[in-house]
Amino acid sequence: MQRRNFLGFLSAGLGGACAPSLVAQTPVAPRIRIRAICFDLFTIFDPRPVVAAARAVVGDEAEALCEVWRTKQFGYSWLRGAADQYADFHQVTYDALVAAERARKLSLTDPQRNQLVDQYSALPPWPDTAGMLARWRSAGLRLATLANYSPAMQQRLIGGAGLLGAFDALISTDAARTYKPDPRAYGLGPQILGVKKEEIAFSAFGGWDAAGAKWFGFPTFWVNRLGVAAEALEPGPDATGPTLTELAEFVERWPS
Questions:
Q1: Is 88 a catalytic residue?
Q2: Exposure on the CB side of residue 173, measured as CA atoms within 13 A
Q3: CATH number of this structure's domain 49-119, picked from the four choices 1.10.443.10, 1.10.10.10, 1.20.1250.20, 1.10.150.240
Q4: In angstroms, rounded to a whole number, what is the distance separating the alpha carbons of residues 114 and 120?
Q5: Collapsing DSSP states into helix, strand and coil, what is residue 229?
Q6: Order of strands across the sheet that contains 200-204
Q7: Which of 65, 166, 194, 204 is deepest in the core (most CB within 10 A)?
């Protein structure tokens, strides 16, 4: 029997239009919903008062000092991670400040250095932080920080803002003895929250952190608070926006 006649025979013999389809149906994959959010601290706390604190110490040199300080801070954390010479973020931040003042030919006293380093643990939340955290909590999402800050720095920062109750966990990369963007650092999120990485949205402040989180496998949103240029790193974040409102929209519509 020819193939055309055979198919016609099946259609007629099994009830015509009511016959079972011979075409295999592709199963639709279930939607992977976001069940948790991990935040870089600067997406929920404003780091700019560090410059204001430096201005009270070194005057017009503040911006230049802080620029070198930030560069050394990141450089030292990554160098120590690559060389397996871990020191916690408080120590890295202090050492980076000493290097920055030398580069700028300044001379700070030890109390002044401590004052500036401590400013990192006394930052104000961004205006949308408290309300959005409460909204996500009421929606049943699990919330955690995932930061290079040492545990003590996180406790001081978040406790000082009265936001300890907003989080299920305060995750410090200190637990992995490394720093972001090391995959071991990001891996603390799924490990501690007990949620698959594909179900955790990562809220990044820096473009480098957005790239690292995306490479790790998080659905990644870059909260570009300061409107800086994108990094030349691919693949980049899944989406970007200037506030937590856009992050909320991203979480709601993921993975569309």
A1: no
A2: 26
A3: 1.10.150.240
A4: 10
A5: coil
A6: 169-172, 142-147, 36-39, 200-204, 220-223, 239-241
A7: 204
- Helix extents (H) in 139-240: 151-160, 183-186, 188-193, 207-216
Number of H helices, E strands in the chain: 11, 6
Which contiguous run of DSSP H or E holds residue 223? strand 220-223
Could you read off the pLDDT of 193-223 as tens digits, one per residue? 999 999 999 999 999 999 999 999 999 999 9
CATH code that applies to domain 36-46+125-253: 3.40.50.1000
CA atoms within 13 A on the CB side of 236: 12
Annotated catalytic residue within 40, 88, 182, 209: 40
Structure tokens at 27: 């199963």
Per domain, the residue ranges of the chain are 36-46+125-253, 49-119
Q: Does residue 110 carry a pLDDT above 90? A: yes
CA distance linking residue 126 with residue 121, whole number of Å: 14
pLDDT tens digits, 16-60:
333 333 444 555 455 689 999 999 999 999 999 999 999 999 999
Spatial distance between the Cα atoms of 140 and 5, rounded to a whole number of angstroms: 58
Tokens of 3: 């193939």
Exposure string for 8-27, b = 16+ CB within 10 A, e = fewer: eeeeeeeeeeeeeeeeeeee
